[in-house]
Design brief:
Elements (H helix, E strand, L loop, with lengths): L3 H22 L3 H4 L8 H15 L11 H22 L4 H15 L8 H43 L1
Helix pairs in contact: 1-3, 3-4, 3-5, 4-5, 4-6, 5-6
Length: 159
């Protein structure tokens, strides 16, 4: 188990990266409107950075938050959230906002245009989001059908 100093540094690093990420994300006026609910931007970016630090900490090794770093971090955290939602059900608001941010930044027009490698990361996010949306819709449909079946059978057995 890590000592307090190591653990403290770990959380300090997460907060520092998340704070930098906040300032970059806030520059995008479309993103600003997403954070009017219970989950704040700092809560969301802290969660995003924690996921990346657990899964692929090398993404933040150089300390810069370039478009490449942000897209890679969003891709990793978005993939994590998709898996979590499929395994456990619905996501808390801040985790759902990570998914929304990932899609937004993947669909964004960049100037200058992204390198092909980063365009591929964007395409991966967009494709995964589409597949995830279909899967979520199918799960909701199946749940509604189960509720209808339970209501119908419950009504028949109650007589």
């Amino acid at each position: 188990m890590p000592d307090r100093r190591t653990l403290g540094k770990y959380y300090w690093d997460i907060a520092a990266i998340a704070e930098k990420l906040d300032s970059i994300i806030l520059k995008d006026s479309k993103v600003f409107s997403l954070f009017k609910g219970a989950a704040s931007l700092s809560d969301t970016t802290n969660r995003l950075v924690r996921v990346v630090m657990q899964e692929q900490p090398e993404i933040f090794k150089d300390g810069s938050l370039s478009d490449e770093t942000i897209l890679r971090a969003l891709s990793v955290s978005f993939s994590h959230m998709v898996m979590k939602s499929l395994e456990q059900g619905s996501l808390p608001q801040k985790e759902h906002l990570i998914c929304t941010l990932a899609l937004h930044f993947a669909e964004k027009n960049y100037e200058p245009p992204l390198k092909q490698e980063l365009k591929d990361v964007c395409l991966k996010i967009i494709t995964l989001h589409q597949q995830w949306s279909v899967q979520i819709a199918q799960q909701r449909h199946a749940q509604r059908n189960m509720l209808r079946t339970d209501n119908i059978s419950g009504g028949l057995t109650a007589n």
